[in-house]
Structures are given as structure tokens and as C-alpha cells.
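Moderator note: this is an archived Q&A kept for reference. The question asked for a predicted structure of one protein chain; the sequence and the answer are reproduced below.
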Amino acid sequence: MKKHEVKVGGVYLAKVSDKVVQVRIDGESRFGGWDATNLATKKKVRIKSAQRLRGVVRLPEPTGVPGQAAATADATKGEKAAKIDAWKKEVAAKVAQPDSALDKAVADAKNTRAAKVAKAAKAKQPRKPGCLDAAVQVLADAKKPLQADEMVKRMLAKGLWKTKGKTPEATLYAAIIREISAKGKAARFRRAKVSETKDGKAHALRGYFDLADADKKK
């Protein structure tokens, strides 16, 4: 071979220690010729002249076809990039289009959350007294037995109870009777004995109630 044909980094056949081996030219030697590496032994050798080189070693392409690997890699990258671009465009198009189903789902979710918040706020409000609680209060204020209709009048007048029933006195009467029957001595109410005098005779009046602990408060 001639000196100008030798390229740094190239692989050549060379005679080293009476054997023809492959060597890689690493660079020019300061002593003349080139520094090289014996690819068989991985040892450093010096090629003194181009005449010791027998020819260029043509290394095969990784796939057996020149440039095929690089071309395949580039094609694969291009295909992936094209798919990603197409996917981005598809997503952008869907985002831009109105979606009534999605809008309805979002609105329903907001309404549900608002309803839960309102329900929670309502649950935290103090419980309004029922008819029996209100009856206890008016009997305590009256300090005397009252009939159901009179208790209802006072409860409604003081705003202690609200009802849309047509016969609130019957509702209250029944509720008091149920508590007395169910709780017995633990009930807050008791039947009261009330009478009036007519024609010189005492007549018992029915339907009066008093607080069970009324005697203790007197």
C-alpha cells in the first residue's frame, strides 16, 4: 500500500511477528510510520511503513446491507414522530369540539356537590322543637294544666311550633298519650284532674294534661 492510502482509524491486514493479522491505525508515530493496535491480541504495535500493510479490511454492516440499519432507525423515528403528531392533532380537535355529554356530567357533578354542601349546612342548624317539646314549654309557663287545644294556641302564638295540619290539637293529644303509654313514669306528661262546679256539684273535666314534675316545681 502507499502512504497516502493509510487512514487513521482504518483497519488493515499487516504482517506482525510473521503473522498476518488485523490492525487498527491509531495515529502517526513520532518515530515514523503509525501507532496501531493488534485486534487479535489488543497489543500496541508500530507499523513502520505502508509496505507492511497488505490491504484494507472491510467491516460488514450490522444488518448485512450497507446503510440499512441507519435507514431503518430513521424510518422508525419518523413513523413514531408522525403518530405522535397525529395523536396531538386528534386530541386538540376533540378538545375544541363541544361535548354535551361531558358538559352535562360536569354540571351534574357540580349540582351534586352543591346539594351535599347545602344538606350538610342544613344538618348543622339547631333542631326546631317538636310539638311535645313546645307543649312542655307552654305547660311550664302556664304553671297549670291545659287541654291540647289551648296548648296548641299558645304554641302557635309564641312561634314554638309550626304545622299545616287541619287538626293540630288531635295530633298533640295523640302524641302526649303515646309518650305517657310508652315511657310510663319517665314520661314528661301526666293526666291532670280538673273539675268545675255547676249547680253546686263538681264535674270532672277531661283532656287536661300537666307536667309530671309539676308538684316538684311548686
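Archived answer notes: The beta strands are 11-16, 19-28, 34-38, 44-47, 53-56, 146-147, 189-191, 194-198, 201-205, 208-211.
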